[in-house]
Amino acid sequence: MNIGEASQASGVSSKMIRYYEQTGLIPKAARRDSGYRDYDYADVHRLRFIRGARDVGFTVEQIGELLALWSDRERASADVKALALGHVDALKQKQAEIAAMIATLENLAKRCHGDDRPDCPIIEGLAESDGLLTAKGKPRRFGKVDELRA
Asked: What is the Cα gyration radius of the chain?
């Protein structure tokens, strides 16, 4: 099948299929006499696996590791589980960082009058050189409105 058909069958865009070939996640497709790529059902199956891994946020490098484990019939499931749980930890860290960003922006928005005046704690908070989050990724607390010169 051509790249369009493989894309349709796998749910992966043609552009991403080319990218996955370039990065080595899938082998280079055979070429027809016309020069067009030619994919088979094994390629589509591999693309579906990659799509599933991307859907849960695995990186290209992690997907490479998963593909190696998938094709290794001698693998221990503990290896796959360890990779998945490591990814869960990274996702939880990102979740905490996003929660801190939300809290910081909500905190700044509470201090903004939202009127016709040009003074805005949001703008001033973003411009501060020491950052809006603490070193531990927690939102910096602003006790008084005048700390941000609002």
From this structure: 24
- The model's pTM is 0.74
**8 Å CB contact between 87 and 94:** no
Residue that is last in its domain, among 40, 71, 102: 71
Please report, as a single letter, which amino acid is at residue 7.
S
CATH for 60:
1.10.1660.10
Q: How confident is the model at residue 134 (pLDDT cuts 50, 70, 90)?
A: low
Is 39 a member of any domain? Answer: yes
Q: Could you give the CA distance from residue 128 to residue 124 in angstroms, rounded to a whole number? A: 6
Q: How many domains does the chain have?
A: 2
Distance CA 126, CA 51 (A): 37
Using one digit for the tens of pLDDT, what is the confidence trace for 56-115?
Answer: 999 999 999 999 999 999 999 999 999 999 999 999 999 999 999 899 899 889 989 888
Encoding tokens for residue 148? Answer: 């941000």
Cβ burial of 55 (10 Å; 0-12, 13-18, 19+) is exposed
Q: The domain containing residue 111 runs over which residues?
A: 90-148
Cα(5)–Cα(14) distance, integer angstroms: 9
